Amino acid sequence: GFLVAVYIDRLQRAEEDATRRSLQMAADERDRVREAEVSRARRVAVLSLLRAELGRVRSQMETNNRQSRSSAPSSRDPLTDILWRSLSSSGELRWIENLDLLQQIASAYDLLAAEIDLEKRWLAARAVAGGGKVVSEDYIASELRAHDTAMSRLARLACEAMDAALEADGAEPDSDLHRR
């Protein structure tokens, strides 16, 4: 009788341990799925924001004024990289796990930063001159024309890469700018 009771107790404990391990494995799997979904949602959010910002830059680059660089850029329509800088400084870029994609986006934003700086210099030179054309305007316009084609190309490539990444994550690419 006593040995039978010990044997039954051991069987029950083994069964309880197996059940506990099974439940823990299921909970761990649910946690992994939840973490993957959170990661995907954050990646989609970050890529969507960057895609919208770079898409706007592409549209701005295609305006007649910026294409010809014949006059100073409008202070009412500045190029911006505020989302990139904000997401970068807050650590949100960590959600972009594809390093090739991140490098492509970073390259576009690196050139965009140069464009933004040159446009600000042009506007500052114009403000100091108080009207009329200043000597540095020709130099700045020449530098901007040299960067514009590359900026437009890098923005297009980064936007296409982000569209592909968004589609791979089951999200819609930016349909307004996806047609270009």
What does this structure look like?
With 180 residues, the chain is mainly α. It is built from six helices and no strands. It has helices spanning 2-61, 64-68, 82-90, 99-129, 135-168, 175-178. Helix 1 runs antiparallel to helix 5 and helix 4 (99-129) runs antiparallel to helix 5 (135-168). It is rod-shaped and about 110 Å long. Mean pLDDT is 87; it is low at 176-180.
**Which spans have pLDDT < 50 for at least 5 consecutive residues?**
176-180
Report helical residue fraction: over 70%
Q: Could you give a short account of the major beta sheet? A: none
Per DSSP E runs of 2 or more residues, the count of β-strands stands at: 0
CA-based gyration radius: 27 Å
Q: What is the terminal-to-terminal distance?
A: 83 Å
Overall pLDDT score: 87
Indicate the structural class: mainly alpha
Q: How much of the sequence is in beta strands?
A: under 5%
What is the N-to-C order of secondary-structure elements (H for helix, E for strand)?
HHHHHH
Number of helices: 6
> So what's the overall shape?
rod-shaped
Condensed summary:
This protein is mainly α. The protein is built from six helices and no strands.
Short descriptors:
180 residues; mainly alpha
SSE layout and pairings?
Layout: H1 2-61, H2 64-68, H3 82-90, H4 99-129, H5 135-168, H6 175-178
